[in-house]
Amino acid sequence: KVLRATAPLSDGRDIQTFSFSKRTITLAPGLVSNLGPRFFFVEDGIVKLYNVHARNNYRAEKKDFAGLAWACKQEILDQDFFGQPSDIEFVDVDKRGDSTSVVTYGLDDLLPFLLEPPEETIARFVKCYRKVLEEGLAKPKARRKPKDRPTDQLDLGL
Asked: What is the rounded average pLDDT for all residues in the chain?
């Protein structure tokens, strides 16, 4: 469903794509997180980080995308691609129900939706996260066993 919804976005575009390894960023001493898309592309001389958000349940809002866009700009675009024209292409795929909607955002679309300076959001997150860890308030999520898969799989001989 996601591929069918996003594939038409590439029609008529002249782009070059490149693999991109996620970056480890330090949120606070002793607390790191991975950040970054799996690839970026260059279109009309502009470097664009690419991210697809495709969920059924939790729907990120523009303010959520704005925080991620800010982090990608600060930690990746401004450092790895310093001085080059750059942007992001965030694709929000709503695959609930029978119809699928696709909305694409760039930096100019998202950064106005930051509700507070991102450093304050990160500091609050770190404080809460540490409290949860110290007080043992969270347990690892119980994983459901995968459903039985059919045994008559197609052998492609690869």
From this structure: 83
Please report, for residues 69, 83, 99, the alpha-carbon distance to residue 65 in angstroms, rounded to integers and kept in the order given: 6, 24, 22
Percent of the chain with pLDDT over 90: 20
Phi-psi region for residue 90, left (φ > 0), alpha (ψ -120 to 50) or beta?
beta
Q: Give the whole-angstrom CA distance, residue 128 versus residue 150.
A: 43
Question: Cα separations (Å) of 16 from 13, 23, 45, 81, 135?
Answer: 10, 21, 10, 15, 48
Name the 3-class secondary structure at 132. helix
The percent of the chain in helix, strand and coil, each rounded to the nearest 5, is: 35, 30, 40
Q: What is the CA radius of gyration of the chain?
A: 19
Q: Nearest-CA neighbor of 15 among 52, 49, 38?
A: 49
Q: One-letter amino acid identity for 134?
A: E
3-class SS of residue 93: strand
25-59 per-position pLDDT tens digit: 888 888 888 888 888 999 999 999 998 888 766 67
